[in-house]
Write a structure and sequence with these properties.
InterPro entries: THOC7/Mft1. Residues 219-231 have a biased composition (Gly residues). The chain is mainly α. The protein has two domains: 7-134; 174-218 and 243-347, no CATH class. It contains seven helices and four strands. The strands form two sheets. Strands 1-2 form a two-stranded antiparallel ribbon. Strands 3-4 form a two-stranded parallel sheet. It starts with 6 loop residues before the first helix and ends with a helix.
Length: 370
């Protein structure tokens, strides 16, 4: 593979070759002539002269070559070396310039790469900021939303105050209802006790009448059967005559006893004690207590626990009062269902019953753990 040089380098190479090879070529030609001279007898004289001439020319060429070599060894060699040094210096400067240009290019490319990296990083940041900005609305919409939230907060605070007042009033009403229910329970118990006493007295009177009627019949030897006042009259053991027993009164007592064992309907609009069933139509609105009424009316009604005609009548226009953790209708229905099963209006659990229930529950838990 040949190396291509520039024009000054080629001229320098050619000059060096021409000065170093031409005298040597001439000397070699003269030497070849000297060796090629014929050696015959007839041409001996001519050959001797020619040989001497060729030998002299050979020596001249040899001296000239030596002289040329000496000259070139001094000045020409210095010039050639200087020219070569200049060419090498030029080439070195060119290489340095080229290296400097390459370094500049590399630095420029590095700066471009760094700028591209910064642009990419800034673009990513700008995109994130743009997403964050686009996620929110402008100032006017934000102000409208803030104003709307402020109005909503004010309305919620107003509602909070309203419901706080309503809750306080409902607590007062609930306390009044509890007091009225307790008074109603006491009145119902008293009425039930009165009904039981009346029933027991009527049973005793009827038993005494039957015994008194049987004794005269046995003494006279005849028997009387049937109705009428004669069959139901008799003498008491103290000698007094027993008044006749009215069947309607006895039936009324039985109805009264039966009514005492009946339970209240939890779905009814009002609750009446058993003694006031016959007077239900005669009750006036003033004798009724409404659940949603004012606390003053409830307190006035609570001050009259002995009135048998007092009622709890909810308003049909409003929804029933709802109290957290207490359902009046559900509790009434449970208590009334228990009274239906036991034949009582309201059954109150005593402390002993509660202790027995707790002991039973503890026994069940111990059995379950065992």
């Amino acid at each position: 593979m040949s190396v291509v040089h520039d024009e000054p380098t080629m001229e320098l190479i050619k000059t060096r070759l021409s000065h170093s090879e031409r005298p040597l070529i001439r000397l070699m030609r003269t030497f070849y002539k000297l060796t090629m001279i014929p050696t015959g007898l007839e041409d001996q004289e001519r050959t001797a002269e020619e040989l001497e001439i060729v030998h002299m020319s050979f020596l001249l060429e040899l001296r000239q070559l030596v002289k040329t070599l000496k000259e070139f060894k001094g000045t020409r060699a210095v010039e050639l070396n200087r020219s070569e040094s200049i060419q090498l210096e030029i080439e070195r400067s060119k290489l340095e310039d080229q290296a400097f240009q390459e370094k500049l290019k590399i630095q420029n490319l590095e700066s471009l790469l760094e700028q591209a990296r910064r642009d990419r990083k800034n673009k990513i940041q700008y995109e994130e900021i743009g997403k964050e900005v686009r996620r929110f609305s402008d100032r006017f919409q934000s102000a409208d939303r803030i104003n709307g939230l402020a109005r909503e907060i004010e309305s919620l605070l107003d509602e909070q105050g309203f419901y706080a007042e309503r809750w306080a009033s409902r607590r007062v009403q609930f306390d009044a209802v509890i007091l009225n229910m307790e008074a109603l329970q006491e009145s119902i118990k008293e009425e039930k006790a009165d009904a039981d006493r009346k029933k027991a007295l009527n049973d005793d009177e009827s038993d005494d009448g039957n015994i008194a009627a049987e004794e005269p019949a046995e003494g006279s030897g005849g028997t009387k059967v049937g109705g009428g006042e004669e069959g139901q009259t008799g003498d008491r053991p103290d000698g007094e005559t027993q008044p006749p027993i009215d069947p309607s009164a006895q039936g009324g007592s039985q109805l009264q006893a039966k009514g005492s064992t009946t339970s209240l309907n939890p779905q009814a609009a009002s609750f009446l004690p058993p003694s006031s069933e016959g007077q239900r139509t005669a009750d006036t609105p003033e004798d009724r207590m409404k659940i949603d009424g004012e606390p003053e009316n409830l307190s006035q009604t609570a001050s009259q626990p002995a009135r048998a005609s007092s009622e709890l009548t909810p308003k049909p226009d409003h929804q029933p009062m709802e109290i957290d953790g207490f359902d009046l209708q559900t509790n009434l229905s449970h208590s009334l269902e228990g009274s239906n099963e036991d034949g009582l209006l309201i059954e109150e659990a005593t402390m002993e019953d509660g202790e027995e229930i707790e002991e039973a529950e503890e026994g069940q838990e111990i059995e379950a753990q065992a």
